[in-house]
Structure formats: C-alpha cells, structure tokens
Amino acid sequence: MAVVRKSPLYSVRRSKVHGLGVFAKRKIRKGTRVIEYLGERVSHKVADDRYELKDAGDGHTFLFIVDRGVVIDAGEGGNEARFINHGCDPNCESVIEDRRVFIEAIRTVQPGEELKYDYQIGRDDDDPENVDEVFACRCGAGTCRGTMLWPAKRPKKRARVAKTTKARAKR
Ligand SMILES: [Zn+2]
To answer: Looking at the domain assignment, is residue 78 inside a domain?
Structure first.
C-alpha cells in the first residue's frame, strides 16, 4: 500500500476574532473528524478551583464539559483544539463519543477559513453581572447572537443565592 503523505489539515495562527485561531490548510469535507479535544480530565470541582479566580474579565476558557463528572482542561496537555474559536454560524461542531470530545466539520471548509464551533457556554444563577460582556461574541456572522453563552438571553433570576462562582466551560 502506498503511503500518501498529506500536509496538515489545519494550522494555528492569529485570528481576527480572538487571540489565536485554527485555520483550514486544505479543503475539509463536511463530516470530517478534524481533531480531538485533548487535555487533562478533571472533576468539575478541580476545574472550578483552578479557574474561578481567572474568570473576571477573561472570556477565554480552555475547559470543556464532557458530562456531569468530567471536564477536559486543555490548559494542561491540550492540543490545537483549544485554540478553535467560538462562532455563532460555525463550520464545525463538538461531538462527544465515549466520553471523548471531537471537533467535526458540519459543512465543507475551504482552505484559509477559520474553524469555529458554538461553545454554548452555560449560564448559571451565580453568573457575575458582567458575564455577557466577558463572553461577548464578535464573530462577525450575520446571525451573531452577541454572546458565547447559551441561552443568548439571561433568564429571570431565580430567588435563591448560589454558593460558589463556577469556572466557565464550553459544552
Ligand atoms: Zn457571534
């Protein structure tokens, strides 16, 4: 069998959206599993403890919620997947399979296009007042909802006082 050496599918470079981004180097066909989201697998408690202080004013998170028990912290041993930016009209999505996370193309991506998926960062009752500012989206899509949070609108405050500040995570 001939070994076909292909150039990498993507590269990491500066993005207009936020910090670094991941860009297609070649055409990526719809349905392609582009990359696995790697990092240290920790409990929600550990993730909260690590990042709760870094929350204020920093809208970038390397955490990804796998399920109720596991969060992937790409700040420790993460790969390029951690640099994929959020987009409201994304060309990729995150797929959880056997408690692993993969980023897959949901449409064909042309060379040079930035890869994005919808972070859908969850809202919590104890979110700080400026949470929408911190996680404001400037992805530039015509359908941009203006926030990486989901749901887009802050729900009515429930009449209970939450206990802790939680680390922010994609899901
Ligand atoms: Zn947006």
So the answer is: yes
Q: For residue 160, what pLDDT is reported?
A: 41
Please name the residues in contact with 166: beta carbons below 8 A apart, sequence gap of 6 or more.
44, 48, 52, 124, 126
Q: Is 87 part of a structural domain of the chain?
A: yes
Q: Is 133 helix (H, G, I), strand (E, B) or coil?
A: helix
Distance of CA 160 to the CA centre of its chain: 29
Residue 119 Cα to ligand 1 midpoint, Å, equals 10
Structural domain harbouring 142: 10-150
CATH of the domain at 40: 2.170.270.10
Residue 121 Cα to ligand 1 midpoint, Å, equals: 13
CA of 139 to the centre of ligand 1 (A): 4
- Give the Å distance between the CA of 25 and the centre of ligand 1: 23
Structure token pair of residue 24: 């297609």
Distance of CA 93 from the midpoint of ligand 1 (Å):
15
Whether 164 is covered by a domain: the verdict is: no
Q: Which residue has the higher pLDDT, 162 or 91?
A: 91
Distance 3 CA to ligand 1 centre (A): 41
Looking at the structure of the chain, the number of domains it has is 1
Look at residue 164 and tell me whether its pLDDT is greater than 50.
Answer: no
Rounded to two decimals, the pTM is 0.85
pLDDT tens sequence across 58-69: 555 789 999 999
Asked whether residue 59 is domain-assigned, the answer is yes
